[in-house]
Amino acid sequence: MPTLDWLKKEFDYGYDSGNILSRIPNLRRLREEKLIGGSYRDVFFKAILPYLKSDSIVLELGPGKGSWTRAILKYIPQGKLHTVDFQDAEKWLTPHKYSGRLICHKIQDNSYVNFPNNYFDFFWSMGVLCHNNLEHIEEILKNILPKMKKGGIAVHQYSDWEKLDQYGWKKGGVPIDFKNKKDDEIWWVRNNQSSMSSVASKVGWKVINSDLNLLKRDSIIVVKA
Questions:
Q1: Using one digit for the tens of pLDDT, what is the confidence trace for 4-33?
Q2: Residue 215, H or E segment
Q3: Terminus of the chain with fewer CB atoms < 10 Å: N or C?
Q4: What pLDDT shows up at residue 16?
Q5: Distance CA 142, CA 146 (A)
Q6: Which residues does 182 contact at the CB level (< 8 Å), separation at least 6?
Q7: Lowest mean pLDDT among 9-13, 163-167, 196-200
Q8: Which pLDDT score, from 0 to 100, does residue 12 have?
């Protein structure tokens, strides 16, 4: 299922995780945090904010309805945030409200050819690479690398089957019969810290941390351009 065609169709409703920065999560966010074994607010302040400056140029992959987008924009008042999605995210994110600080791009593939080189300070995604096969992850990381400024940072959540085994498949909301299926037939693809680090290194990123250990079910990698 994690083909490009599947990814283009699956999330056309616009994924929404609620207010990431709220100290008290709503029911949806609470359910999601129970599945992943962690706090979105904690992820923001430990995995995103340390790499933001007030004038940062940020790229977000797969914003959906903008739960993480709105949180990031709050902390880059002089910066810009570009989002890329297979969906038309403008209808959810209303970029006209942000005086040019939010630019939404609807893409058809993972080439990113229309972005300038040496442009982004920070590259982020949550709930995206966990649905991408390793060859697509490699393609994304390879094509975005030249678009990053030297020393720019990327932080991404991804599926980690070794952690999932320890955490529990039912507890994590992932069907256990996925173990017996090919990656093209499942929506939570095989990956782990070793594979993710290997792919990132292969295309030229420097792996700073293969997992920040903020989530019990998934991993969050930090890499440097």
A1: 555 545 555 557 888 999 999 999 999 999
A2: none
A3: N
A4: 84
A5: 8
A6: none
A7: 9-13
A8: 55
Amino acid at the residue 20: I
Q: How many angstroms separate the CA atoms of 34 and 55, rounded?
A: 34
% the chain with pLDDT above 70: 94
User: Are 207 and 201 contacting, i.e. CB atoms less than 8 angstroms apart?
Assistant: yes
Nearest CA among 220, 173, 171 for reference residue 200: 220
C-alpha 125/C-alpha 157 separation (Å) is 6
- Tokens matching residue 103: 């630019």
User: In this structure, what are the phi and psi dihedrals at residue 7, rounded to the nearest 5 degrees?
Assistant: -65, -35
Strand partners, 188: none
Judge residue 206's burial from the number of C-beta atoms within 10 Å of its C-beta, 0-12 exposed, 13-18 middle, 19 or more buried. exposed
Angle between helices 134-144 and 193-202 (to 10 degrees): 40
Bridging pattern class, strands 206-209 and 120-125: unpaired
User: Does the pLDDT value for residue 153 go beyond 60?
Assistant: yes
Q: Is 138 helix (H, G, I), strand (E, B) or coil?
A: helix
Q: What is the pTM of this model?
A: 0.94
| Residue 34: strand, helix, or coil | helix
Torsion angle (degrees, nearest 10) of CA 169, 28, 52, 154: 30
CA-to-CA distance for 52 and 145, rounded, in angstroms? 18
Q: Which helix (H) or strand (E) holds 223?
A: strand 219-224
Query: CA 59, CA 30: separation in Å to the nearest integer?
Result: 26
Q: In what order do the strands lie in the sheet with 120-125?
A: 102-106, 80-85, 57-61, 120-125, 148-158, 219-224, 206-209
